[in-house]
Amino acid sequence: MNTNKRENVAAYSFLAPALILLGTFLVIPALMAIYYAFTDYYLLTPDQRQFIGLQNFMEIFKDPIFIQSLKNIVLFVVFVIPIQVGAALGLALLINKPRKGNIFFKVAYFSPVVLSLVVISVLWLYLLNPSEGLINSLLANIGMEAQPFLSSPKQAMITIVFVSAWQGAGYQMLIFLAGLQNIPSTVYEAGKIDGVNKWQNFFHITLPLLKPTSVLIMITTLISAFKLIIQPMVMTQGGPMNSTMTPVYYIYQSGFSDRMIGYASAMTVIFGIIIGIITLLQSRLTKEDDM
Amino acid sequence: MKKVMFLTVLVLMAIIVTACGGGNESSNASDDEVSLWVHTSDETPEGEAMQSTIDRFNKEYEGTYSATIEFIPRSGAGGGYEDKINAALTTDTLPDVLTLDGPNTAAYADAGMIAPIGDYITNKDDLLPSIIQQGTYDDQLYAVGYSESGVGIFYNKQMLEEAGVDLSTLPTVEEPWDWDQFMELSKTLVNTYDTAAIDMGFDDKSEWLMYAFSPFLWSQGGNLVSEDGSTAEGHFNDENSVKTFSFIQEMVKEGYTTITPVEKGFHTGEYPMKFGGSWTIAEMEDYPDVEYGVMPYPASPDTNELVSPSGSWQYAMAASSEKQEAAGALIDFMTSTESLTEITLANSVLPAAHSVVEEVQDKVSPQMNVLIQQNQNSAHARPVLPNYPQVSRVFQQTVSDAAYYEENSDVQKLLDEKTGQMEKALK
């Protein structure tokens, strides 16, 4: 009992820093957001906050911009996940083989991850300028018409997909690389003895053994993709015609520009539930595959 | 046992949280010492001028009042500073006097954050009408702007002359052009240079679109919302709005302006004209090869009334201040002719009072004088509404959407839709 107690004390004191930080910056704010979601909290009159029940939620479901932002983010996620994860896997395979200059490529592929998203967005803003940008000059050289990119309601989101995938892929590439290097060489040797070709090698050995890494990457990429805000904020301000407005951006705008903390909190709660459900579904699906 | 430990941890957490939230910063100052928060840095010319004004105040009122200034530089669109104001509001630690951007007047006054200061300001008659308009909510003066801003049309003299335009026929503040004349000029320039005639800043999808484009609507005799600010229906979608937004759409459709202007296109001789303000004059110092002039805003052909953008940061008194007399005296001092002249010249901005115009007009460039003169005659403050951020955003989106002339060729339909959104913001 005595040693038990002492061990408990030790355990909790080791846990305390993490618990305190998590509690202060995650649990308490999250609980507060849930509470505010049921109030009419206006940023400038915190004292006149009143409980208004489900009113915020009813309004949100009638808010065309919020609905539009949900559609936009689904479009973004559907495109960005395969492109970004596929690119990451491709890059990881490329630099997995020992080759001269590998370090250079590793750094080159990873460097966009280190740069600030704001810097990247501004950079692409210049590259994508319809009249003077480098991308359109390149297109002109191969005989293609100049594209409006970010200033077209049809192309803006897709453009952001490519910029985001280009920026983020380096990070997933590193994780894939670690996964690849964890695959024991004995498996490949066994394959060699059985005479598998390159494709069989990839689809029947590498991919299945990368499964745990892939699941992790899918889930983390999915969640961060849903949280898209900086790229549209810097590059398009949610436009043209709200085509790049995302839920997190709209929450930010409602809370801090429009000062409707209650309304923004309610959107946060709804959006949190949506992401939670999707994450659950995804982990269910990938688990079933295992059996 | 485990429960006990868990509770201890929770209590610890609670202690830390409350300890972080405590700390009352502003209440330890003495009775006659006024605290002032400003949004700029002490290294900018604006901040230096403020510091020097505070030093003069402290000398002049030695023994009666004193003031301290705290610089809280804002980031970009005002992030850092307003976050701090919002946090101070929640913890009741606002300073006695603070700066606020023009469009925030109504929201701050409506929330009871700032107090009316009309009784303390001695030179109200001297202040420009746009300054009074911007600081007045519910018929009471809540804030006084210490400078003004404005937009004029910057033109490249050489490019215009080469296109066959006689510069002496260009409009003046006394005799402005209407939209049709302006489009005629744009057409000439487009035909000569095969590029957009004017960079109107369509790529800046923020407050700029409200600030720079709303004067067209006012010139036409229209408005965003009703006089009492209660409804947009029948105002933002009336005939005047349709005419105004059709003009804006026409500018894009005819290729007179572009929604994706090249960065610094005017500065480098790509576009012959640009919407610019006093900051553009400062920028142009780096491009000495471009000889440029400034002409006033074009007016609606129906009214021929010149209306130009305006608005800037102001001083206001926190309603929570217990030293209202001293705070009032400070704001009055900081908006006196001497103080305003100091900050206007230091910061190269437009004057906020008639007397300051007299003081500075011989000391600034002819281009600046066009902006000053236009501002003095035709400046219109943005609407003073508590829900300004939402109203402004709907207006910005309307301008931005109208520029997509293929998708939104029916301007009336676009305005009806946007009026609905504005209506929602107003309730």
UniProtKB/TrEMBL annotation, chain A:
GO cellular component: plasma membrane
Major subcellular site: membrane
GO terms under biological process: transmembrane transport
CDD domains registered for this protein in UniProt: TM_PBP2 (cd06261)
Lipid bilayer topology: Multi-pass membrane protein
The entry's keywords: Cell membrane, Membrane, Transmembrane, Transmembrane helix, Transport
Listed InterPro entries: ABC_transporter_permease, MetI-like, MetI-like_sf
Signal sequence region: none
Gene3D superfamilies assigned: MetI-like (1.10.3720.10)
Segments passing through the bilayer: 12-38, 73-95, 107-127, 156-180, 260-281
Pfam families on file: BPD_transp_1
Residue ranges constituting the ABC transmembrane type-1 domain according to the UniProt record: 70-282
Family: Belongs to the binding-protein-dependent transport system permease family.
Record protein name field: Carbohydrate ABC transporter membrane protein 1, CUT1 family (TC 3.A.1.1.-)
UniProtKB/TrEMBL annotation, chain B:
Protein name in the entry: Fructooligosaccharide transport system substrate-binding protein
MF annotations from Gene Ontology: maltose binding
Keyword NADP among UniProt keywords: no
Lineage, uppermost ranks: Bacteria, Bacillati, Bacillota, Bacilli, Bacillales
InterPro entries to which the protein is assigned, alphabetical: SBP (IPR006059)
Keyword Protein biosynthesis in record: no
Pfam families documented for this protein: SBP_bac_8 (PF13416)
Top-level taxon of the source organism: Bacteria
Ranges that cross the membrane: none
SUPFAM superfamilies: Periplasmic binding protein-like II
Keywords assigned by UniProt, alphabetized: Signal, Transport
UniProt source species: Gracilibacillus orientalis
Listed PANTHER family: MALTOSE-BINDING PERIPLASMIC PROTEIN, MALTOSE_MALTODEXTRIN-BINDING PERIPLASMIC PROTEIN
GO cellular component: ATP-binding cassette (ABC) transporter complex, substrate-binding subunit-containing
Signal peptide positions (record): 1-19
GO biological process, one term: maltose transport
Family, similarity comment: Belongs to the bacterial solute-binding protein 1 family.
